[in-house]
């Protein structure tokens, strides 16, 4: 509506101007020496306007000619940037598709003119590692850091990731420790350290890292508890394996309250104590653990004790709440043998077998029956144990 009104006003003004020109064209005389120019006023005005536009047009052409080198350079720069974007996109697609060499080439060729040099260098470094060229990978990482010094953390994080993926544990450790100095609270740095310490089986360092994980809430409370237990369990297991008794005791003494009598941890420690004949201490920690939580493996280990009276009485107390535990009956049978209670031992073995037949239960029952001079029953127990063992193994053993 407004446009129509404007057009109407322009037409109206044009008509009015035309009428004025027709009725009173005016008169203009210009005399210079012997030269004169005479014309109507309106023609002179229109002529001046045309001359103005002509000079303005000539000025624009002249200005364009003066600035043409700069414009040409700008055009070339824009053109190169567009080509660099195309190469970068192509390189990223090739990287995603697993064409490592082609991806690396396109990403590097785009570098002089790309506006994403960090992305190009880091992705090219990943491609170089996939090609197995670690030296080229490290060179691209150095170039990335040189190109964008402010992205130091991003570059070193990528370096640590690549070193971990390449199983370069010592180099990754050095990189991550340097990152810890640069960014002590960086969540991804701490997560990578968790992974690295697990790979290195450096349980002591992993345990020392736990307080930071808790403070900065890097992982959930549940994950922290699982990680803590796993670290202690792996540490105990490896110390037992390598017979590091002194360090094992130190580690047990540092257990947090929540894990002090954890069944899985105490099973490892209890088995070790039994193996070195520290019966009293083994009985104490296994008893504490069982009081806290009944566990099949822990009660089975309790049956390996050779102490008199006290173990049998304690183990019997679990029958009321765990009447269907074959491990409990097997333990009671073994402890009854320690007390020379042959009848009870036999009954407990038979109850264990009834709940869950196992070759070891049959074998121990057979030995007991031989001891009490019942060779026929002993032979039958041995036979059943052998048959059970044979049917539970592979055809080729």
TrEMBL record:
Family matches, as Gene3D superfamilies: Tetratricopeptide repeat domain
Protein name: Protoporphyrinogen oxidase
UniProt pathway: Porphyrin-containing compound metabolism; protoheme biosynthesis
UniProt domain HemY N-terminal: residue ranges: 26-132
NCBIfam families on file: TPR_hemY_coli
Phylogenetic classification of the source organism: Bacteria, Pseudomonadati, Pseudomonadota, Gammaproteobacteria, Legionellales
Keyword Nuclease: no
Membrane spanning residue stretches: 41-66
Gene Ontology cellular component terms for the protein in this record: plasma membrane
GO BP term, pick one: porphyrin-containing compound biosynthetic process
InterPro entries associated with the record: Heme_biosyn_assoc_TPR_pro (IPR005254), HemY_N (IPR010817), TPR-like_helical_dom_sf (IPR011990)
């Amino acid at each position: 509506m407004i446009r129509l009104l404007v057009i109407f006003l322009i037409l109206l003004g044009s008509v009015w101007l035309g009428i004025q020109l027709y009725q009173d064209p005016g008169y203009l005389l210009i005399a210079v020496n012997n030269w004169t120019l005479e014309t109507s006023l309106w023609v002179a005005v229109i002529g001046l306007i045309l001359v103005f536009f002509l000079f303005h047009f000539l000025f624009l052409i002249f200005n364009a000619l003066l600035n043409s080198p700069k414009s040409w350079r700008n055009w070339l720069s824009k053109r190169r940037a567009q080509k660099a974007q195309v190469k970068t996109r192509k390189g990223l697609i090739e990287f995603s598709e697993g064409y490592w060499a082609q991806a690396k080439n396109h990403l590097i060729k785009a570098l002089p003119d790309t506006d994403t040099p960090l992305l190009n260098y880091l992705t090219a470094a990943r491609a170089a590692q996939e090609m197995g060229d670690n030296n080229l990978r490290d060179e691209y990482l150095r170039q990335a850091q040189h190109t964008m010094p402010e992205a130091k953390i991003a570059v070193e994080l990528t370096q640590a990731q690549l070193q971990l993926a390449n199983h370069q544990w010592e180099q990754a450790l050095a990189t991550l420790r340097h990152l810890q100095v640069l960014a002590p609270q960086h969540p991804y740095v701490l997560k990578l350290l968790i992974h690295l310490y697990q790979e290195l089986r450096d349980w002591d360092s992993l345990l020392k890292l736990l307080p930071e994980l808790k403070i900065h809430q890097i992982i959930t409370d549940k994950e922290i508890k699982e990680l803590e237990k796993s670290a202690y369990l792996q540490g105990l297991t490896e110390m037992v394996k390598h017979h590091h008794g002194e360090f094992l005791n130190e580690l047990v003494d540092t257990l947090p309250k929540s894990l002090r009598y954890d069944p899985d941890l105490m099973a490892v420690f209890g088995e070790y104590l039994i193996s070195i004949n520290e019966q009293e201490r083994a009985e104490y920690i296994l008893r504490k653990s069982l009081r806290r939580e009944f566990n099949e493996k822990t009660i089975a280990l309790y049956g390996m004790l050779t102490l008199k009276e006290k173990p049998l009485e304690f183990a019997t107390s679990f029958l009321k709440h765990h009447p269907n535990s074959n491990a409990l009956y097997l333990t009671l049978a073994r402890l009854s043998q320690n007390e020379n209670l042959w009848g009870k031992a036999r009954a407990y073995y038979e109850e264990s077998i009834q709940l869950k037949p196992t070759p070891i239960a049959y074998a121990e029952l057979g030995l007991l029956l031989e001891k009490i001079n019942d060779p026929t029953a002993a032979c039958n127990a041995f036979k059943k144990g052998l048959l059970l063992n044979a049917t539970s193994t592979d055809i080729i053993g």
